[in-house]
């Protein structure tokens, strides 16, 4: 049974290394689906990219902080 649990943890870690990052990406996708439809078509791409870039920067900064 422990081998199955270890295997599932490894598979989970393969796809979701940072749960906060994954949740932020999912939340941004939901928000962008609701909000970006009101923007001009030429502005949707840059706004979507900017949101993903900000999430990535915040995640990298959080990971770079020294642990206590």
Quick rundown:
Helix content is 81%, strand content 0%.
Give keywords.
68 residues, mainly alpha
Write the layout of secondary structure elements.
Elements: H1 2-15, H2 19-35, H3 41-64
Q: How much strand content do the residues show?
A: under 5%
The domain tally reads 1
Which stretches are poorly predicted, pLDDT < 50 over at least 5 residues?
none
The proportion of residues forming helix, as a percent range, comes to over 70%
Report the major sheet: none
**C-alpha end-to-end distance:** 34 Å
Tell me about this structure.
By secondary structure, the chain is mainly α. It has one domain (17-64). The protein has helices spanning 2-15, 19-35, 41-64. Helix 2 runs antiparallel to helix 3 (41-64). The chain is elongated. The model has no long low-confidence stretch (mean pLDDT 89).
């Amino acid at each position: 049974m422990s081998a199955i649990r270890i295997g599932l943890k490894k598979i989970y870690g393969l796809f979701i290394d940072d749960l906060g990052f994954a949740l932020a990406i999912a939340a941004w996708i939901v928000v962008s689906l609701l909000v970006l439809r009101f923007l001009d078509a030429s502005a949707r791409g840059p706004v979507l990219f900017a949101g993903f870039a900000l999430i990535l920067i915040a995640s990298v900064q959080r990971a770079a902080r020294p642990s206590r």
